[in-house]
Amino acid sequence: MDFYAILDQVIDVLRQRQRVTYRALKRQFNLDDDYLEDVKAELIQGQRLAVDEDGAVLVWTGETDVSPRITPPAPQPAALPGTADAPGTLRVPAPAAPPSPEAERRQLTVMFCDLVDSTKLSSQLDPEEYRDVVRAYQAACTEVIQRFDGHVAQLLGDGLLVYFGYPQAHEDDAQRAVHTGLGILAAMADLQSRLQREL
């Protein structure tokens, strides 16, 4: 069982009984001498919830109405080599974990656009030519999407999954999505005429 789980149980027993012999704790929780010494050190010196009486009894000194819960300490980074026991050395505090961002509810507009008749097109073109067409289509769509501050979440073969309102929110994200769709349609006419000249 975890040390802190056992410690919590010992605290519960000690709080209820107010005085407990070390022999009773050893028997009840099946503790060896070293484990009992660790529990004593934590309760007496670490948490200051109890005192030793005559080397045989643990006496509760904490509050009687609330059972404190011991939580494991956060893991500490290892000391730099050669500095752990060096006298007069400065200990550098561990870097603080960045605070987690607060949860936020926001409206999100999601748009999916797909290349029409791409299966038919793939059977008519050489695989490398088809790949070039799909890449040109994705590049043209991405340019329009970025113009309206959309975010390409995923490229799915010949489709694009686009978010408006993430990561940057605007008051008019739904309108931006509509303008993006219309812009993509206009860009496809230009792309089609360019690809017909090149292929």
Number of strands: 6
Which quaternary structure do these chains form? single chain
Q: Fraction of residues in helices?
A: 40-55%
Q: What profile does the largest beta sheet have?
A: 3 strands, antiparallel
**Overall pLDDT level:** 80
Judging from the principal axes of the Cα atoms, what is the shape? rod-shaped
Low-confidence stretches: 66-71, 76-84
Beta percentage is 5-15%
End-to-end Cα distance: 71 Å
Architecture overview:
It is a single chain. Helices cover 46% and strands 15% of the residues. The chain is an alpha+beta fold and 199 residues long. The strands form 2 sheets. A 3-stranded antiparallel beta sheet has the order 1-3-2. The chain is rod-shaped, with a radius of gyration of 34 Å. Residues 66-71 and 76-84 have low confidence and may be disordered.
Layout of strands and helices, then pairs:
Blueprint (H helix, E strand, L loop, with lengths): L2 H15 L1 E3 H8 L3 H14 L3 E4 L3 E4 L48 E6 L3 H7 L2 H21 L3 E6 L2 E6 L8 H26 L1
Antiparallel strand pairs: 1-3, 2-3, 4-6, 5-6
